[in-house]
Design goal:
With 135 residues, the protein is mainly alpha-helical. The chain is 60% helix and 7% strand.
Length: 135
């Protein structure tokens, strides 16, 4: 699987919008992504979102909050999100969103990076969005 920075941004936007009392459940994230045309209803898309939530946790942008229904074994697997799994944004997730929230700015940044022949890495995206935001 390749990391999809548009999906990363979409997941972060979904979590921020759906958070109540500090977190939201995975189904709310999926529903928001479907409603906003980031994904379809397929199992493949659900698995891709689950994996991207895992890399958001790895990257320190989000944190998995465990549900009482999850077993000890599933708690060890930060890459798998059950429909009842809870997720919340961390400081870095909010920082990234502060720079990448605006659709127009996001598209400009993607174009700049693409025109330069680069790839859309988290560090480059964060740097370019924060600099573009200032201009």
């Amino acid at each position: 699987m390749k990391r999809d920075m548009d999906l990363v941004r979409g997941i972060l936007l979904a979590i921020e919008e759906k958070e109540t009392l500090g977190d939201c459940d995975f189904c709310e994230v999926l529903d928001w992504l479907r409603a906003n045309k980031y994904i379809t209803s397929s199992d493949k898309d659900r698995d891709k979102v689950s994996a991207h939530c895992g890399i958001l946790v790895d990257g320190g942008l989000a944190e998995k909050c465990y549900d009482f229904m999850e077993t000890d074994a599933s708690r060890q697997d930060k890459w798998f999100f059950f429909p009842s799994s809870r997720i919340r944004l961390c400081w870095e997730g909010y920082e990234f969103l502060d720079n990448a929230r605006q659709d127009k700015l996001w598209e400009q940044v993607k174009d700049k990076i693409d025109n330069a022949g680069g790839t859309l890495s988290f560090e480059i995206t964060s740097c370019v969005t924060s600099r573009s935001k200032v201009k």
